[in-house]
Amino acid sequence: VNEPKRGAPPPPERERLAEEALAHAGEQGIPRLAIPTPFQVGRVNAYLIEDEPLTLIDSGPNSAKALDELERALASHGHEIEEIELLVITHQHIDHFGLAAILARRSQARVAALTGLDRYLANFKQEAELDDRFAERMMLRHGIPADVVGALRAVSASFRAWGGAVQVTTPLGDGEQLVFKDRTLRAIHRPGHSPSDTVFLDQRRSILLAADHLIGHISSNPLLTRPLGSEPEDLGPRPQALVTYLSSLLETREMALELVLAGHGAPITDHVTLIDERLRLHRRRAEKIHRLILERPRTAHEIAHQMWGNVAVTQAYLTLSEVLGHVDLLINEGRVREEEVDGVIKLTSSAR
Ligand SMILES: [Zn+2]
User: Fold this and answer.
1) How many other CB atoms sit within 10 Å of the CB of residue 210?
2) In angstroms, what is the span from residue 92 Cα to ligand 1's centroid?
3) How far, in Å, from the CA of 194 to the mean position of ligand 1?
4) Which of 28, 102, 148, 345 has its CA 20 to 30 A from that of 201?
5) Is residue 7 pLDDT above 70, yes or no?
6) How far apart are CA 59 and CA 25, in angstroms?
7) What distance in angstroms lies between residue 233's CA and the mean position of ligand 1's atoms?
8) 301-348: pLDDT as tens digits
9) Mean pLDDT, residues 20-29 taken together
């Protein structure tokens, strides 16, 4: 679901900037620890805050390989798991928090996460089950065939082993500060990629730990996700993940930042240019989807198929979320409406 970036500097120059940015973060006491995951996204970035308390931002997934590499990465900075005093979780995706319970048990670290995410993490298995039921409802309602939905359910259940429940000891309100000896980090809720996305601002250094809210080499998928604390069968309006994400992006765009440390891949040194590229990408994609709907009414699944062809089963929900996010923009603009036929939603031009 990615497009090559436009207007980005050429690869060697970009690599040099990324290296410099990583070195700078390290000098500021925020080295990156890139932890392997079994997922398509590749490695996930945890960040160490070498301050008091010694803090780890995100843990990586729950696997022996991730634990092993995390230990070695910590060792390369002269630390071990037992020394960690605070563990901070950025959002509800298993590649970011799966190891948290093991790390907290071994280190006795406090665990901090956004208020609302704490309950989710404490009851991870049940919450993930509710997420799957919500996703299943969305997929059937938007035209994904029942056999594909069943296959995805099985995949999702097997992925759950890379997560694990963890008790949050320090719930964070939106805007709340984490105070260290040499810095403060302000927790800011920036939902869209997931309902719980939290970014952490070191205002004095103009560094933002953004997790998956902003990633340099891929656009963060605004996944259609059950709102925290809701029931999967809630018949309220569908959450508008992309609309939420775009307004979060606009807020981040206004921040004065020297460096954005992302949850995957290289640091971002020019967040305004990157965010503007993302805004254009989503606008283009919405217009393309609008043209498909103008041709004839289609389900979101048919549109996803038209745009990306036969994607792997595991990508079916991603592409559906991608289409529905842009459809929401068109619905809000009054250009598209939903029509329910036998429990399945067809998307129709409002001009029709
Ligand atoms: Zn994520």
Assistant:
1) 28
2) 7
3) 7
4) 102
5) no
6) 18
7) 24
8) 999 999 999 888 888 999 999 999 999 999 999 999 999 999 999 999
9) 96
Instruction: Return the beta strands (E) in the chain as ranges.
Output: 32-35, 44-49, 55-57, 86-88, 110-114, 170-172, 177-179, 184-189, 198-202, 207-211, 259-262, 336-341, 344-349
**209 CA from centroid of ligand 1 (Å):** 13
Q: 222 Cβ partners below 8 Å, 6+ apart?
A: 192, 193, 241, 242, 244, 245, 321, 322, 325
Ligand 1 centroid–CA 245 distance in Å is: 13
Please give the helix or strand (H or E) that residue 129 lies within, else none: helix 124-141
User: Ligand 1 centroid to 44 CA: how many Å?
Assistant: 9
User: In Å, how far from its chain's centre is CA 187?
Assistant: 16
Rounded to the nearest angstrom, the distance between the alpha carbon of 349 and the centre of ligand 1 is 33
CA of 204 to the centre of ligand 1 (A): 26
Contact by Cβ (8 Å): 163, 154: no
Q: How far, in Å, is the centroid of ligand 1 from the Cα of 91?
A: 7
For 153-163, the pLDDT digits (tens) are 999 989 999 99
- What pLDDT, in 10s, does the model give residues 35-51? 999 998 899 999 999 99
In the predicted model, is pLDDT for residue 150 greater than 80? yes
Q: Is the link from the previous residue into 31 a cis peptide, with omega within 30 of 0?
A: no
**What is the reported pLDDT for 40?**
87
Bridge partners, 208 (sequence order): 201, 260
Around ion ligand 1, residues with a beta carbon closer than 5 Å are 93, 212
Instruction: Compute, in angstroms, the gap from residue 283 CA to the centroid of ligand 1.
Output: 22
